[in-house]
Amino acid sequence: MKTLFRFLCSAALVLGIGFALFVADACRPPPSSPSHADAIIALTGGEKRVNTAIDLLRQGYAEKLFVSGVGPHVTLAQLIAAPGIHQPALPPDLTARITLGRRAYTTIGNAHETTDWTLQQHAQHVILVTAGYHIRRAALELKRTAPALDITLYPVHPGALQSLLSRSSLHLLAREYLKLLGAECSVLTGLPDGNDGLRHHPDTGSAPHSP
């Protein structure tokens, strides 16, 4: 009984330390000046991700932007819209460099969809833009499908995490931490990642943006 108790205490301690490190990593700032890449990859599912990626594209950190996980009927204008704020239309020369991927609906799907696109574009180095709490798992899954791809992490910090001690923030961070542990266990054990997280309906294939 004592052995079991000690094991449970040790496991709880390890998980607690791991969670603290995860939170610290999730809150770290993005690089001030990322190196130039072949493409920028933005994953949908949270605020600031797409707009941040577009800002990087504007600043010349890459020539192309791929947005993975876009809904079948969502437009680029809807992706960049912010509540209560008028967003001017993007210039045509910028929108021509943005592609919306409409097949992925999970992080694993993001990895598969992004890998397919980077192979088509012959991209070898990408800047990955997603929430800080999501970026490690997203990069891990992307490395599974594209092990040779060079990935620069560019985390964004959504308003949902402005107060780390709130119940909603802690719940979100704990959920993402457990998902990361699950992904790491899958990689270490060599188990398949299950569902590929992709829509296979012909109307939702990856396509250039629509206004």
UniProtKB/TrEMBL annotation:
GO terms for cellular component: plasma membrane. Residues 38-178 form the DUF218 domain. This is YdcF family protein. Residues 1-26 form the signal peptide. Residues 192-211 are annotated as: Disordered. One of its GO terms (biological process) is Gram-negative-bacterium-type cell wall biogenesis. InterPro entries: Cell_Envelope_Assoc, DUF218. CDD domains: YdcF-like. Keywords: Signal. Pfam families: DUF218 (PF02698).
